[in-house]
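Chain X:
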Amino acid sequence: MPLPTVAAVVLSQGTRPVELAKALETLLAQTGVDLDVLVVGNAWEPTGLPDGVRTHHEPDNLGIPEGRNVGARLSHGDYILFYDDDAWLPEPDTLARMVAVMESDPHLAIVQPRPTDPDGKPGPRRWVPRLDARSAERGGDTVVFWEGVHLERRTAFEQVGGWPGHFFYGHEGIDLAMRLLDAGWRITYAPGIVVHHPALPASRHAVFYRMNARNRVWVARRNLPHPLDWKYVAIWVLITVARVHDREALGIWFEGLREGWTTDPGPRHPISWRTVARMTALGRPPII
């Protein structure tokens, strides 16, 4: 019987050579799958990579979602592993186990494993695809997912148009998840499958606060029916004001919010009220 085919897309700017080397070493050690490993150099010419790794150079930084779109188009496999360049797989059957979960149900579009920090540091809230971040060991269907390491069914990914490339950074996974759910696909969290990733704050990125706000508005304007679109944004304004105490950072966030309302978010295809009800039943109504 032929092995399942997996395209592994690794996006890198070449700034973490040690981490990238470990990411690729543990990826190439995977068993039970037929791998096509592609490193997309985002404003970086990939060099010095091991045998078995294909490369593609983009002269400009396309951002995370569009860089991943490029990798998906240039790679081959029924499933696509999107894989951060500072992540690594602790066991040689990690990927095969993710594929086994995916193949257990033809309606699954995404399988997210459980990320853990290799040094034992507590993980950020965004690693757990539930409102209650304490439930890291509870698996099952979700309405969001962590983008850092996850497996996607190519047919589902292509059906809904892939990542929103113009987002550049932030909330592209929420946008993709809403479109997948509205198309009838499932997303599952498999905490029994562990991957490693350093626990780092998303706010370390210079563009974090502006794009966090802008893209939050774009998600609403693109995907949510009225009046949920403005309610979603209003609730996140309240959450952000409560969480962010740095006045300068908050000012940048509100500038991003204004940008989100005054710029083109891309095509609008509101999810159905049936999808709204499904998301609510799964514990995360699309107003938060």
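Chain Y:
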Amino acid sequence: MKGGDVAIALSGHSVIIKKISIPATSEEELAEVIPWEAEQYIPFDVEDVNLAYQVLKGASGGEGNMDVLLVAAKKDKINDYTSVVGQAGRNPLLVDVDVFALQNCYEMNYEADDAMGTALINLGASTTNVAILKGTTSIFWRDISVGGNHYNDAIRKELNLSFDQAETLKRGEEVDGIPVENVTPIIASVNDYIGTEIQKTIDFFKNTTPGENIEKMVIAGGSSRVPHLRESLAERFGVPVEPLNPFNRVTVRKGIAPETLEELSSSVTIAVGLAARRVGDNR
């Protein structure tokens, strides 16, 4: 890996994202107000978190108010991640949040329809990130404690296999004479479970954001390649479900085989979104 500076991203229960409405104020006053406002919205002591915020342009919290995106991350979680980076001999220059890196990757690779509601779903090993956009405007974020490990655990339990064997079968490849057909019902069951968990998040979004709808889903993450997951989600939600190609508009250096890029594409969405960041920018 060239260069010593890296960007990393956090997710899960140690990260809180809230859109808040506060009386309109200047940038200087806002910096003083945010810590006091944050105490009302985050379940941690303000002294135990790092706070970041961004005024949402074009959004209005009502007459005389302004909408602000507030992000709080536990300091110990940040320290855990940056310590690992330091031990690897790298400099953690920037810390982001998975759902924002996911959105950045999508926006740098696709044209957004300002009128369309799009759900971005990144299925990781243990956490699924959900970001819902209206055009390029973020309107909802949530992390779900479900992911690819659920497939591995179910396959291992049902067939008494190792983690590596379960991982191979999960990808739709035969292993040690065990045909893929043996895991088809197991995978279908987990597809349904993951769909149900995503459904709970989508239902919450619709209940708390009246008038907004989802017209398309775009999925990423290593587990987005699980057989028949896209079809299962499309049937459940009644909308098109597409894979996110993080290299759709990214120029890749010569010498990398197309099949290698295709294999990597589902797993590097967050990394590509992070690579688009610069210190001091707002996205």
